[in-house]
TrEMBL record:
Catalase core domain location: 22-410
InterPro entries membership: Catalase (IPR018028), Catalase_AS (IPR024708), Catalase_clade2 (IPR024712), Catalase_clade2_helical (IPR043156), Catalase_core (IPR011614), Catalase_haem_BS (IPR002226), Catalase_immune_responsive (IPR010582), Catalase_large_C (IPR041399)
Species for this entry: Staphylococcus argensis
Chain segments carrying region Disordered: 1-36
GO terms (BP aspect): hydrogen peroxide catabolic process; response to oxidative stress
Keywords: Heme, Hydrogen peroxide, Iron, Metal-binding, Oxidoreductase, Peroxidase
Protein name: Catalase
Amino acid sequence: MSNKKQEQLQQFRKNNDQQAMTTNNGVKISEDENTLTVGDRGPSLLEDFHFREKIMHFDHERIPERIVHARGFGAHGEFQVYEDLSEYTSADFLTHPEKTTPVFVRFSTVQGSKGSPDTVRDVRGFATKFYTDEGIFDLVGNNIPVFFIQDAIKFPDLIHAVKPEPHNEVPQGGSAHDTFWDFFAQNPESTHTAVWAMSDRGIPKNFRQMEGFGIHTFRLVNKEGQSYFVKFHWKPKQGLESLVWDEAQILHGKDVDFHRKDLYESIEKGDYPEWELGLQIIRPEQEFDFDFDILDPTKIWPEDQVPVKIVGKMTLNQNVTNVFDETEQAAFHPGHIVPGIDFSNDPLLQGRLFSYTDTQISRLGGPNFNQIPINRPVNEVHNNQRDGMHQMNKHEGQTAYHKNYLNNNDPHTTPREEGGYEHYQEKVEGRKIRKRSESFKDYYTQAKLYLNSLTQPEFDHTVDGFSFEIGKCKDIGVKQNAVNQLNKVDRELAERVAENVGVELPEENEEVQTDAKDSQLTMTKYNIPLEGHSVAVATNGDISEETLKSYAQVFADKHLNYAFVGPHPKAISEDFGITETYDTAHPTLFDSLIVISDGSDMHPAAEEFAELAYKHNKPIVVNEKAKEQMANSKVNFDAPGVITSDDPTAIVQAFERVRYWDRER
């Protein structure tokens, strides 16, 4: 054997030794295919410690899933503030524009289990973990700015009502059933959030194109001890988009992982999603200047009254490498805050501060969940907490108490002036009572405010949302009570839903009078960039390689994602061809459609692609020959957003709007 071969073999053995299979105690394993037995056909032996360890660990691989937000997916990134905000807060990560703060974000649905579909109608969780130099700050929010309840004591009731009904565990992943709508009708504080959830906001297009909200009122506190009330917002730089309901339902079956795959693949391709952080700030002396209570979590602070100040940007640029290690073991908690951020007396927030620790202990097996890598702060941790299940730190020394002489009083406390956390010294007084503030009892004005902000298509979609969900209820009394509640918000909404679900129209109430203009379809702040959208090219007949490459070049120049679809896969060259078939692809998986034909008989699936894309109001381009062959289809070639052209760049013109809602009317 040559010297070179010997060197290679030695290196291989060295590398192989580094990857040698071992038990969890570090003992190398000689065989991993068979249990230890008496002879090759005899009984297994109890002394087989390797099998015992391996099967024991497998039997305990699954930890309890979250009670809510079980279906989730996460990614890593970074945050950078645009300007020094020390006027409002002493938080280090909000006062140093030159500093980049690592983040981890977990998106989720609320109702369903881990195996439920991504595209159900539901509130989405939007939880952000900031790894600041002063400790971890968790902004644990949703994609809807308000919540169903005002006091945390009602949270178990809400979740018991929205979860699958206990007698048959149905339905999974949605709220279209009796117990939820019974809760809605009997607890009118849920009205505002229900209107948001039944609108397009309840079925976001993807994680990248939805807003995030901290929901609660927090405090910012500066170095001088001055306090400001604050709400946190995430504004997507990709724009704001939603699915249509028919599309969402089809996606349940076509791609149950539609949202998580979209996020993962976008980051893998380098199309890093970005959000800007916005703050709504109210001075303490303004607390009672509004016709709503700023501590009420079922209320927004209307942006025309309290503008959103854009202060920084978050970019997600790294996928997780192990979903369990990172996404599933991530322990978020609204009580994880840093100096310069504090709580308000929002009763829902106050209850969440108590509840989340219990949840993490139950899910993650003990009090040391903060030692799991995804939950560890980037700064050092020193305290006198010891032992407990899953203790990973090695504590040395004689003392584990404060104060002490034996260890020079280490670990020691730190004054506020030197960075130690100190709560805002709010003066409070009053009797101990169980009572809701009278200022919380307007349940309908802001629900009407939101309805008034919608365009006609969005309003129609909201009618459809309520009609589907309430219509799925079995009990006629539940349906009637739910429509009675809608009647207190908007007469047209109640009339149309009552007719659709088959209940009596309630007596007419005096309309809530309010106005707003904040539609996701008309807001200029949500202009949706062309880059990153997807195009399906449905091919019919023998399309030349030159033609396909001319389309691909346009897509590449405009940073569009695309796939060529045909009856069968076709490798035109080594790295180029028709990669999808009409069996594997579907128009709901794409943002737009191009149909190109050579004039041969139109494949039925290509025509079906076009008809469904048209139904879902997506941009469509067809070449001249395809138009001729589809003359009897359900596609109206004179409708907005349907372009006839043999020019590959026509898709850019079609993308003038991402949906052509006027087709619906």
